[in-house]
Amino acid sequence: MPQTFAQLAASPALGISVWVLAALVVAAFVAGWVDSVVGGGGLIQLPALVIALPSDATTPEVLGTNKLSSVAGTFVATLTYLRKIRVPVAMVAPLIAAAFAGSAAGSSIARFIPKELLTPIVLVAVIVVGAYTWLKPNLGRTHEERYVGWSRAWLSALIGLVVGFYDGILGPGTGSFFVIAIVAFLGFGFLQGTVAAKLANLTTNIASILVFGLHGELLWMIGGCMAVANLAGGFIGARMAMRHGNEFIRRVFLLVITILAARLAWDTVSMWV
């Protein structure tokens, strides 16, 4: 007898109910929108997966499925941006090459590093980034590149390597870290920086999927359902960001950073209480 959707969603193939799957799809849509505008969609999607997936789901399965969903929204957002906005190939090439290497390395050792050691470090970084952006109201409102040639290439590669490594190990806030690094260190506007960040984040997602996939640590059916919603959110968010420009992105960025800091602070306190 053919299975209903509810029966299929509650079957061992998924391991969750249809209502939990629906909640994950909604979370994926919102995460796709946030991620396409300024990054940080993992702040929404990753905790949702941690809560919703069965208790026997491993950490690499949670991280890998998160990447499987995220890559769809990041891909469509990247294409949407590139139709209207161009970024220098000489800057993007070393950025994405280093981001791929960093993410692959981080994903490879993610299962061996206790996440609780990383959370306080990331919390400090998020607070510093948020304070820096808040205290510099003109940051990212105009596009004035500061470096050319090898200086820009090496700095871009360093950004890609460091942020990519973090994305492979943990992930939430990666897009935001890419954006602020590109804006603060390279002089890009928020809109142009977001485009470059999308290309780098797409690369880190692909690298992680390859690593987790080779180890059989992807929940394909759940990740596939979430990917469709993430793609829709990414498309809508990218179009809104291009319509409203740098100031809109800056405001969303500060909001996401505030929420991310609150979440990390809660996680940090929970570890010690």
Automatic annotation (TrEMBL):
Location(s) in or outside the cell: Cell membrane
Chief location category: membrane
Family classification: Belongs to the 4-toluene sulfonate uptake permease (TSUP) (TC 2.A.102) family.
Listed name of the protein: Probable membrane transporter protein
TM helices/strands, residue ranges: 12-34, 85-105, 117-135, 147-166, 178-198, 218-236, 248-266
Keywords linked to the UniProt accession: Cell membrane, Membrane, Transmembrane, Transmembrane helix, Transport
Keyword Transmembrane helix recorded: yes
Membrane topology: Multi-pass membrane protein
Superkingdom of the source species: Bacteria
